[in-house]
Amino acid sequence: MSITENVAGAVGTDTAEHEYRALGVPPTMRAAILPGVGEPLRVETIATPRPRAGEVLVRVAACGVCHTDLHVMRGEVPFVTPAVLGHEISGEIVALGAGVSEHAELAVGMQVVCGFIMPCGQCRACARGRDDLCHDFFAKNRLRGVLYDGHSRLHDAGGEEIAMYSMGGLAEYAVVPATGVTALPDGLPVEESAVLGCAALTAYGAVRRTADLRFGETVAVVAMGGVGSNIVQMARAFGAARVIAVDISSAALETARGLGATDVVDASSGDPVAQVRALTGGQGVDVVFEALGLPSTFRQASDMLADGGRMVAVGIADGAATADVEITRLVRRSQRILGSYGARTRTDLRHVAAMAGADLVRPHETVTTSYPLADVDRAYRALADGEIVGRAVIRMGSASSPPSPCPSDPPR
């Protein structure tokens, strides 16, 4: 069923409510609100959003617990408040905005995953296929918390807009531009597959697009969180001969082995650079991925490179953090440092989903714990305290069941 743009934008009219009742969509939903920087997340009941032209409404199954949200909560990444965070979701399409069925292979009832980069599809970057550099995504969503018509789809009880970080996925329903949605292959666990939309999509962009990893190369991955765990899997899938996982947590390193790491380096027990070089006969690695965003690990990663090697910076840093790099070595050894933010959603998200369907990427092993929406603030406190190995997700289907147990991970 397709809902016309007129009706989709007419929140509260009899016609709109009639159509949504027919689809089983309630007028209100629960969502995790960030009232202001440094304040705890609180679950409130707000109006269920409505999709407009080119958008879909997703009943959210789960939303990933990502460090980038934590940066926003702390004020390390500026964003407007009040806001609904959450940018890594999976779920079921329950309504289509006008024109969606004409331009995308999406339908009501389809199980989908949604990318955190939701390209406008019209700016200069999108025209070149560089969804990861979409001008309107950064100018409107990341700076103002709105979608491409300049408005949020979320409102409080008084009708005031609530900012959306990406699709505002820490909620029972989310509006997502159709450019950021792809179908899940049959057989994948829907809740765990939420991590495909950010952690795995980011890893794909880093390994396939930015590093252009070549068959037989040696790789090091610094930090085994959700993104690092997926980089390990992607690197093996794209032919790396050796993948060295680096972390301070023995539990995280054990998980990395299960995901395909050929070697592990415990950074808490000695110089990780020396350990990586020892494993590679003193040469260093062809490609190193830094997935934490700390000045110290950035420098360590650059020091792990072999002559002619490539370092891919993936981790988001605190504010305007900088890192020292040895200039002369970079020049004389013909090394490269490359930034990578996500991937090209319209083409790459379907490839990520297909890789998961082929068991090349295993979201059910990347996700180590889950929380109900009622415990969302507890989940982010656990993330801040380093208690989550790999990735956690927020489940929308239960408000009271306890989170799955997770191994301890010392603060990074």
TrEMBL record:
InterPro entries: ADH-like_C (IPR013149), ADH-like_N (IPR013154), ADH_Zn_CS (IPR002328), ER (IPR020843), GroES-like_sf (IPR011032), NAD(P)-bd_dom_sf (IPR036291). It comes from the Bacteria. Residues 36-394 form the Enoyl reductase (ER) domain. GO terms for molecular function: oxidoreductase activity; zinc ion binding. Its cofactor is Zn(2+). SUPFAM superfamilies: GroES-like, NAD(P)-binding Rossmann-fold domains. Pfam families: ADH_N, ADH_zinc_N. Keywords: Metal-binding, Oxidoreductase, Zinc. SMART domains: PKS_ER. Belongs to the zinc-containing alcohol dehydrogenase family. PANTHER family: GROES-LIKE ZINC-BINDING ALCOHOL DEHYDROGENASE FAMILY PROTEIN (PTHR43350:SF2), NAD-DEPENDENT ALCOHOL DEHYDROGENASE (PTHR43350). This is Zinc-binding dehydrogenase.
